[in-house]
Design goal:
Layout lengths: L10 E4 L4 E8 L5 H5 L7 E5 L3 E2 L18 E3 L2 E2 L12 H7 L3 E4 L3 H11 L2 E5 L6 H10 L5 H5 L5 E2 L7 E6 L4 H8 L4 E6 L4 H7 L3 E4 L10 H13 L3 E4 L1 H9 L4 E17 L4 E13 L8 E7 L5 E6 L4 E4 L14 H12 L5
Parallel strand pairs: 2-3, 3-5, 4-6, 5-7, 10-11, 10-12, 12-13, 13-18
Antiparallel strand pairs: 1-7, 2-8, 9-11, 14-15, 14-16, 16-17, 17-18
């Protein structure tokens, strides 16, 4: 049941229990393992638009974090006879193992059309709709709080001891593949909790800083934004992704706003203005940088081809650039993985050069 009162039927699956959350949809055809383990989905129930999910099973090596992150998973059809030489368990078994409620047999087309027309809504998954008034009260009472704090590590975690650049990865809900992309390039990477102060990062003397993705409204991260502003002023090379991109904009006077239904999928076209070239990207966000209030040295260098929203910013005069999409994404396009190389070049030379 959505907060506009619409009701959709289906069958209970996974570790089913009554659950209230924000309902969002993802248009990816593959990558359900990565979606289920992406911390950016904390507090949300995810609807998959592709009609059959689970046909290649589950491989825990593909996890983007140590557990399942959404509140619930909603699909039209779940395949419990997967075919994949890497398969370790069925999707149903995974959902039970990690206590994730699921709903199958859902008319996902109808629900997603409703969300596209009316915007993202809160909703409740329940086995009893006899008292709609009581359910609506539960839906209206639901709100996000402390999402970043709920998904970050609690202490610094070394990810590698490479001989290359020393990188501080700020964990606002980071996907494992961000750290892996840096490690593969020979970096010495340490993952820091979201509450780490700028002074602690500076004292560690990293060569560069990575600001990760994460869940929730970026404007709620007031303390984090203040620390990011200190790091920006200090002049250390910074590359930010998704939530990190939004937080950097807020730290420099920019504005963010909630999107009608967000970008969640593996085929979002992003145009690099300088290159006059468009790349496919994997995205997962419900907020965006509006472009208002940004400092004079901030240049929007990437836009979304579908709706012209801001996808990337260069902060001239500072070794800082940010993107809204996921250049590390798996599953999904890897077209923009070169941005990690561009970051490491910036770390070495002390300036951004595209």
């Amino acid at each position: 049941m959505l907060e506009d009162g619409s009701v959709y039927g289906g069958e209970a699956a996974g570790a089913f229990k009554e659950t209230v959350c924000e309902i969002v949809f993802n248009t990816s055809m593959t990558g359900y393992i990565e979606i289920l383990t992406d911390p950016s989905y904390a507090g949300q129930g995810v609807i998959m638009t592709y009609p059959m999910i689970g046909n290649y099973g589950v491989t825990e090596e593909d996890f983007e974090s140590g557990k399942l992150q959404p509140c619930a998973f909603l699909v039209h059809e779940m395949c419990d006879t997967p075919s994949n030489f890497r398969n370790e368990m069925t999707l149903s078994q995974l959902l039970v193992k990690y206590d994730m409620p699921c709903m199958t047999g859902l008319d996902t087309r109808s629900v997603v059309k409703r969300l596209r027309e009316s915007g993202t809504m809160r909703g409740i998954i329940t086995a009893d709709i006899s008292n709609k008034e009581a359910l609506m009260k539960k839906i209206k009472a639901f709100h996000h709080s402390g999402l970043v704090e709920s998904v970050t590590v609690d202490k610094p975690v070394p990810l590698s001891n490479g001989s290359g650049a020393k990188i501080a990865l700020m964990d606002f809900g980071t996907k494992r593949n961000i750290g892996r992309s840096l490690v593969e390039r020979g970096c010495e990477v340490t993952q820091y909790p979201s509450f780490t102060t700028a002074e602690e990062i500076i004292k560690a003397k990293p060569d560069g800083i990575m600001l990760s993705n994460g869940p929730g409204d970026p404007s709620d991260c007031v303390g984090i934004i203040k620390e990011i502003k200190k790091l920006y002023d200090y002049g250390m090379p910074i590359f930010a992704i998704c939530l990190g991109h939004q937080l950097m904009a807020l730290a420099n006077g920019g504005e963010t706003q909630r999107m009608k239904y967000g970008h969640r999928g593996a085929n979002h076209p992003v145009k690099f203005i300088h290159d006059d070239r468009t790349y496919l990207s994997s995205q997962n966000h419900g907020y965006m940088v509006s472009g208002k209030g940004l400092p004079s040295n901030a240049e929007i260098n990437c836009i979304n081809v579908n709706d012209s929203t801001v996808e990337g910013i260069i902060y001239h005069g500072k070794p800082v650039f940010t993107v809204q999409f996921h250049p590390e994404a798996n599953s999904g396009p890897r077209d923009t993985s070169f941005l990690f190389d561009r970051f490491l070049k910036m770390v070495k030379e002390g300036r951004y050069d595209d």
